[in-house]
Amino acid sequence: MGFHIINIENGRLKHDFVVSFEELSYIDFITEDSVIYQGEEHWKPFKISESEKYCHFAKGWYRAGIRAQELFKEQAMAFGLILEELNQDQKSFKLYTSNAKKVSIKRGDFLVRNYANIEIDVKCRGFRKYNGETCFDFKCEDTDKHFNMQTFTKTPILIAVYENVNSKPRDTDVYFFSINDLKNSQLETHHRSDVGECYRIPLSFTTKGFGFIEETFAKHTGVKEKSYTLAEKRINHPNAYLKWTEQDDEKLEILYCEGKTIRELSEHFGRNNGAIRSRIDKLELKEKYDG
Fold this sequence. Notes:
The structure is a single chain. This protein is an alpha+beta fold. The chain has helices spanning 60-79, 90-97, 140-153, 179-183, 211-221, 230-236, 246-257, 262-269, 273-282, 285-289, and strands at residues 2-9, 12-18, 35-39, 83-85, 110-112, 118-125, 128-130, 133-139, 157-165, 168-169, 175-178, 189-192, 196-202, 207-208. Strands 4, 5, 6, 9, 10, 11 and 14 form a seven-stranded mixed sheet that branches. The chain has a four-stranded antiparallel sheet with strand order 7-8-13-12. Strands 2-1-3 form a three-stranded antiparallel sheet, with no helix packed on it. Strand 12 (189-192) and strand 13 form a beta hairpin. Helix 8 crosses helix 9 (273-282). The two termini are 24 Å apart.
């Protein structure tokens, strides 16, 4: 442990590290505006703009995309999906690129393990009106890369899209379309100076809700899953898919601390077991009380 000393000079980060409190007296650039924190020597600070790994967090669209992935995990669990998060690191990706016959490919964010490993890529997009229809953009290059991956893995790839509202995903609706449908469509494209050629996708081209995964599974495997309407789901779980309120969260925390089981919590809140587990994870109750 030691002391990190941070100053900003001419827009650049100036940093030093000393081991002892007394050594701080030898740092001549300390001012009233300096920042000092204790930590290991390798816990070095950095400016976001100078970090290849973290620079995108300064951009609203990137933060919205990460939030959309987290929202998707929560809602998918409530729907009863078993997700496996796909690693996006270079080492994992190399396993695919080394066998993909030198074509450009792109991985999604998740596999749905209980639906034939269907691959899902989650996006958060700005919605705009075009010729009277609400639309969003999707890069043609990404479409081709996903299609190449799908051809290679022989597994359907779906795109899940949330609306980007003030750099946050709207949590009420998620829209799906398949890479197959997009490749076979006659949707028009247009050029954007920031990302290149894009499909302009109307919401009428998509399917709203997680039921689209079941439909894709049935087409891909020939196995028909029992599909339940929202009304049917609410026979056993009357609050299914309703938004959690602040009062609900407070009550869940109290009952969790009292040692109530998932089944008991499910009955109390009128939600399925997956929704309860998802909310416990969201509120980090295990970390707060079981650690």
